[in-house]
Amino acid sequence: MADFEIRDLRASVEGRQILKGVSLSISKGEVHAVMGPNGSGKSTLSHTLMGHPGYTVDGGVVTFKGQNVLELEPDERARLGMFLAFQYPVVVPGISMTNFLRTALNAKRGYDGKDKSKQIAPKEFRSMLKDELDVLHMDDSFLPRYINDGFSGGEKKRAEILQMAMLRPEIAILDETDSGLDIDSIKFVAEAVNRMRGPDLGVLIITHYTRILEFIKPDFVHVLVDGKFVLSGGAEIADRLEKTGYSEWVTEEEPKEVA
Amino acid sequence: MGLTSESLEKSLLQGEPGWLRERRQTALAAYERLPLPAKTDEEWRRTDVSRFNPADFSQLEHLDGLKLERPAGLPAGVILQPLRMAAMEHPELIEPRLFTLVHGDRDRFAALHAAFFTGGTFLYVPDGVEIDEPILGQHFSHHDGTSVLPHTLIVAGRGARFNYLDEYIADNESETGHRSGSTEIFLGEGSQVGYVAVQKWGRNVWHFADQRAELQKDSTLRLFNVTLGGKFSKTRVEASLAGEGSNAELKAIYFASADQFFDFHTLQDHRVGNTRSDLLFKGALQDVSRTVYAGLIRIAKHAARSDAYQANRNLVLSDKAKATSIPMLEIDNNDVRCTHGATVGPVDPEHLFYLRSRGIPESTAKRMLIQGFFGDVLDRIPFEHARKLVEAELESRIG
Lengths: 259, 399
Prior knowledge:
Chain A is of the alpha/beta class. In chain A, 33% of the residues lie in helices and 28% in strands.
């Protein structure tokens, strides 16, 4: 069995079934890409995997470290080693990025406000942060700012990857991380993700476009259409989609990329 | 002993100057004359005082129950004294001002406060004097079932600049009783005053407070009100912009839990033009608590180029808690800028999910969001000492 196993996942939003039986095995060390046209269920997949309360699981199992993650709370999933880089990172006024990162890191280390020995030392925290900021070509001016508040599209996405780098997940889901990114930001983000690639990390990239896959080479590509995979294979599938789009499966107008 | 003329004579009037005795007697007469506010009165429609009987708490606590932190090296001419003492020693400064902003005949409770006020502070900062260190006044209640009714009178001379904190502290968290904490602030031309009031009386008291400031030309007030204590707390915060170029910032936070009821009434009274007021009241409610906010921006006919902002934001943390917000405008001039808004809502589920998706447990995430909700307004507390105090109080209550 793979490290992260999705079996026959079905999910709905507001009573409408979106995922109609998705199965996928991800082993650590692998990068999988899920590609699909608008409305195919890409966001539903990422949100359902992370446990967003607006999505209802209708069936299936997701196994990670011997647990059915569908039965866990979102924060339990994260502490188990899952990470979701949001397509639309949420602006949370009143909480600084530093406070957010430190609290998340401490939660991962099992610090519950009592056992101070589990808390990350300020020095260690700062030096970790500095290294990752450098990789992402970010300066520390955004750390005292509120979470994603006033960040440009590129800054938000880089901040997502920064969080990933700090939390060191074992399964990372990147949901449309390339949308709204300028080419420099894509390169920095890809560089940071590539640095993390290795035997301890499995990656699931969810994307409409092939662009990000030029920078983060996937080992496997799966095409999601109407809530089901219609094609799975190697990186060559991305090349095929680059040329023909999703016209084999759906007739859609090529939407403009949303900034 | 009741709240009568005899008890007033016996407990308070001894040694007080004639003008003050008279003022107390007049207020007492108003108290006896005024009826309980009727439910038909808009201001009291949602505020139930029918179960409050002041006579239950007729024992007045300590007449000068005030600790004044006198900063070292207070400049010459600055007067900082318990109000009753100051009334005897500096009648020329106090007689023309005391209870001229906060009126003793406004309602039954204001009358009671004006008749029986005890303790309280008088602060006078002469023209041109600037004080860097904040001045701290602490008002304590020590006993259960008493009345503690402090009154603060602040006079800022021309160009004076200083910060002052009133802290209302209960010895006993579960005390019952009648509490107040009213304040009058006179801002002279070009003065800059920071005023913070932190109300943390016990959980079972009835609290009534009137804070009112009058701003002369080019003066700036930064007022910050914190309401945490009481079973019932009614606070009126009013700024009268009487001089051109004056600027009032009125901010508040409140945190209501269990069965607490908080009522706020605000007034931004633009009496002349070229004046500015900026009000933000933010509160969080949990359990079965209730809050009512009603705020009025009033811009007089000739007060052109006034700029007024008013917002009340409520974070409702329980299905059984209820916040009511009523913004009101009364504008008699077209050449003004005026914005107001109110929000009442729960923690944003998207915010909560975002924090939890990073491994932060739900309870911690909620606490962070509550603190975050207050974050922007906490930044407006005019001085560091008060900011630290309020942050610590909030943190212990949010848990």
